[in-house]
Amino acid sequence: MCSRFAFFRWDSAFAALPGFPAEQAPHWSLAPGARVLLVRSAEGARRVDDVRWGLTPAWLNDLSRTPAQARAETLSEQAMFREAFRRRRGLLPANGFYEWRGQQRKRPYWMTSSDSVLYFAALWEAYPAGDRVYLSTAVVTTQVASQRRPLILDEQAQAVWLDPHSTPERLESLLQAPAVGLRERPLATLVNDPALDAPECLTPA
Fold it and tell me: Which of 136, 141, 135 is nearest to 121 (CA)?
């Protein structure tokens, strides 16, 4: 399950997108409940929003139950995700994510690719509270061997995912596409501390 990722490096073109926070800090460990950056389409162009990782539809009454992940296999069926899948799709930028493996003492791994920034498929929702509207998100995950990993989209797939006019058939083809090849590196257990958000998270084993 994708429960932690990092976004600590971006280029000037990304920082120039509308909505990019001027005070944005690098993060080496982002977990559900954290504030993350979401890329979405607005009036035909991409923009960035600072959102909460944990999907919060406007109809949700129990705010302790805000899913951070959405299974690709059931997006079009589950009430929690069905409408967002149709109308509110976005991207979560990341430099990589963490994966834990093993039975007794799980070893953390850093998962990344040759691309400096990965884009995870995501859904988003708006939650009105008083005179403000809060945005939230969930990352779309797929099954890869014994792991659930974020659905990573290349440039062409990103355009299809963000396009409000994409047909259900095109979107389903993205959900069923083969997993992207990733690089992996075993890490020391420092990253196991959820309070640590620093370069030490990437300390090699």
Answer: 141
